[in-house]
Amino acid sequence: MPVWLREHSWRQTLAAVYLSLPLRGARATPANIFCSEQYLKVSIPPFLFEAALYAPIDDANSTAKIGNGNIFFTLYKKEPAMWDSLTLANADKEKLQYLRENAVLKAQEKAKEETEAKKITKQEHKKYALEATMKVEEAERKRIEDLKEKERQKVTQELELWKNQQKDGDKYKSIQKKKELHQEIEPLKERKNEKMNKTQIPNEGTSKTRLKSTKGSCSIFSQNLKEEQLPAPRAAATIKVNFTPRVFPTALRESRVAEEEEWLHKQAEARRIINSDLSELNDLKEEEKNPDWLKDKGNKMFAMGDYLGAVNAYNLAVRLNNKLPLLYLNRAACHLKLRNLHKAIEDSSKALELLTPPVPDNENARVKAHVRRGTAFCQLELYTEGLQDYEAALKIDPRNKNIEKDAEKIRHLIQGTMQSS
Amino acid sequence: MSAAVGAERPQVVSHVQQALSYTVFDCKWVPRSARLLCLGSAARGTGIVQLYELHGARLELLREIEKPKPIKCGTFGATSLQQRYLATGDFDGNLNIWNLEAPEKPVYSVKGHKEIINSIDGVGGLGIGEGAPEIVTGSRDGTVKVWDPRQNDTPVASMEPVQGESKRDCWTVAFGNAYNQEERVVCAGYDNGDIKLFDLKTMSLRWETNIKNGVCSVEFDRKDINMNKLVATSLEGKFHVFDMRTQHPTKGFASVSEKAQKSTIWQVRHLPQNRDIFMTSGGSGSLHLWKYEYPAQRSKKDSDGSEMGVAGSVSLLQNVTLSTQPISSLDWSPDKKGLCVCGAFDQTVRVLIVTKLNKI
């Protein structure tokens, strides 16, 4: 329950009402005062004072002065008339409530209007500021343009001047030519000295013309001298050159250096892998633990026809180092010979996997892998897959006649089976 | 790499722009005049030579000459100042020298190469340097040949691949070290990144190196002095500056390299009036102006006691983008400092003026 403040006192003139409200020790701030046209409220919890005014007032211009434990209101009447009392006499609850709500609404509206007005003025200010900056920048740009124009004009004028001097110089030179053709070398030397002196003077304006003409005449003479002294044409000779060989014979911008680096890197890595955690290896001799040696052994056995032995050798090598594509490639060849077609396909696939990225370096290996896998497919009568592999091989090496012939054969076979089915 | 102070930086001012109706491959100033030449290939497959004169803010066409084969490159380097004959290389491998006053029949003509002549250079003319006038051509057939206009049909020197060696296109050639009558070197750049330096006095290969990317352009800073610096530009936006004063027996010449533009650097040209300033033109249509600064000591002794060069540093003075297409040719005027012409693949030739070069 609020504590009502009732010790207010008031007096009035025709135009204004002066209300004085003692605050009983409470501290008031502007936020505690709420005033609208016909309603005035001061709320400082727990104190409360409200008044439904007798007549409307001009709440925009009315003031409240807070101080000395007192609020002093100066309320300007809307209509100058004497009030019978400060508040409405028959202020029943409903009317009061209505007034209150009205007052609140009105206050809200006012607040909205105010914010909108503020927004508009803010926008206008911004616009103005923008225009001002634009003007300033425009001025700056113009200034620079003017400087450039001036420079350009100055330079153009100089150019014209120089060009005219050239023309005059030419004319003068031809006159001089005729004169000097009758003179000897001694005066020429003299003139050469003269020329050298003249070059030390800053050559602007007319001295330029004179300079050019003497230069011209000098050169005629030096030309004659030179012709007597010109060496005979050189004895013909040829110099043979070599061009820098390149690891990858493409210009830097065309090369696929990144991929080639990757491939080289992979090869290096692969060679370093040693899966040395196999206990059976303790029985083997030193050289038998070397995958390369085993690969060679395998190759020899293949060449001699001992396919099973070759497969064994390759198996051991793979156990030692499973990243060397050539091992899988060669083992695939052995399986082909042994008619272990599925194994052949597996090994060729593994080899192809290891032969990424595709670079010119591992072209041969990839061709072989595709051909072997293709052959295996064909022997399993999976001709379409086989053809795919042969075509891949052809793409890498289009010039290989054997692959072409085999691919043709397979195509015929496919067409034959399709016709018959 | 530091840029020069703002207000003092050289500015590249575009003075004149001229649209052409053919592809321009090379543009050159005619020495001692305000005239320039454009060489190129017309759509119908013939070669065009156009002579323009600079008139105020425009170029006036003085003469147009049409030849049966498209022309790739040209030089005035080997003629005298009076004659001013133009030496051109064309798409068919022919080297011709023309008198522009009477261009119907060439003064000298030889079918020098089996394939297009990519690059040509001349030395010994224009009152610069000493010795016999010579022209060098580099071609797609992998050979570099040196010609003397007084000797018909056979080159005075030829640099060819060894028998059986696969050839690499020669993309650029340059003369250098022509400081007396006997000395001369030819530098050639190839498409696999090889740079070879041939000594014509001893008729031998003096130095070679490989910069990994195809070499688009080589130039010595001056042809007629003891070789000082060589700039080689390549694909992928890189260029190398070699200090040619000190040759180490194994390491060759010291160099500094800079990656400037994201695209190919088509040409490098040194300012005739200041040999430490050069301009590179790029595939993105931009031009960069560079200055080379020498190191405190140009050579030092290495661990074996032999002399080794020390490369300096390169700083960017200015850059400007003029076109969306590559600027394939560039030439400074030998008579007016800062005046240059460039030709781009968007069929325009532009005359530019670079200001404030005196203040560098």
Automatic annotation (TrEMBL), chain A:
**What SMART domains does its record include?**
TPR (SM00028)
Cite the CS domain residue spans from the record. 3-87
Q: Where in the cell is it found?
A: Cell projection, Neuron projection; Dynein axonemal particle; Nucleus
> What are the ranges of the TPR repeats?
367-400
Q: Does the keyword Repeat apply?
A: yes
The annotated regions of Polar residues compositional bias extend over 198-214
For this record, the Gene Ontology CC terms, alphabetical, are:
dynein axonemal particle; extracellular region; neuron projection; nucleus
Keyword Repeat, does the record have it?
Answer: yes
Show the segment(s) annotated as Disordered: 194-214
Q: What is this protein called?
A: Dynein axonemal assembly factor 4
Automatic annotation (TrEMBL), chain B:
Query: Could you name the Gene Ontology cellular component terms for this entry?
Result: dynein axonemal particle
* WD repeat spans: 135-157
What Pfam family does this protein match (any one)? WD40
Q: Tell me the organism.
A: Polioptila caerulea
Please indicate which superkingdom the organism of origin belongs to. Answer: Eukaryota
List GO BP terms, alphabetically. Answer: apoptotic process
Q: Which Gene3D superfamilies match?
A: YVTN repeat-like/Quinoprotein amine dehydrogenase
Q: Taking the first listed entry, what is the main subcellular location of this protein, grouped into a coarse class? A: other
Q: Which InterPro entries match?
A: WD40/YVTN_repeat-like_dom_sf (IPR015943), WD40_PAC1 (IPR020472), WD40_repeat_dom_sf (IPR036322), WD40_rpt (IPR001680)
Write the record's keywords in alphabetical order, separated by commas. Apoptosis, Cytoplasm, Repeat, WD repeat
What is the official name of this protein in its record? Dynein axonemal assembly factor 10
Keyword Repeat found: yes
State the function annotated in the UniProt record.
Key assembly factor specifically required for the stability of axonemal dynein heavy chains in cytoplasm.
**Which cellular compartments is it found in?**
Dynein axonemal particle
